[in-house]
Amino acid sequence: MSVENLIYKCLVGSKAYGTDIETSDEDYKGIYIQPEKDILSFKYKEQIEVGKDESYYEIRRFLQLAQSNNPTILEMLF
After folding, report:
1. Which of 26, 30, 55, 65 has a Cα-to-Cα distance from 15 of 20 to 30 A?
2. Cβ-Cβ contacts under 8 Å for 65 (sequence gap 6 or more)
């Protein structure tokens, strides 16, 4: 599945920190902008889970979490 309007994608977890081992998987997080028509309707999604190793936050939700010093968001900013 692809995420429309993706504006930021980063590698997180052990691979990002260089503490991975041979069996480590790649974990990704990112930010997307949802189309205006979806925001104004009942189709708003604050987060999309593509799989257990990949998730994306809508920009408004990302900023809310950043404002509360959410550790996952701080890792993405690092």
Report:
1. 65
2. 57, 72, 73
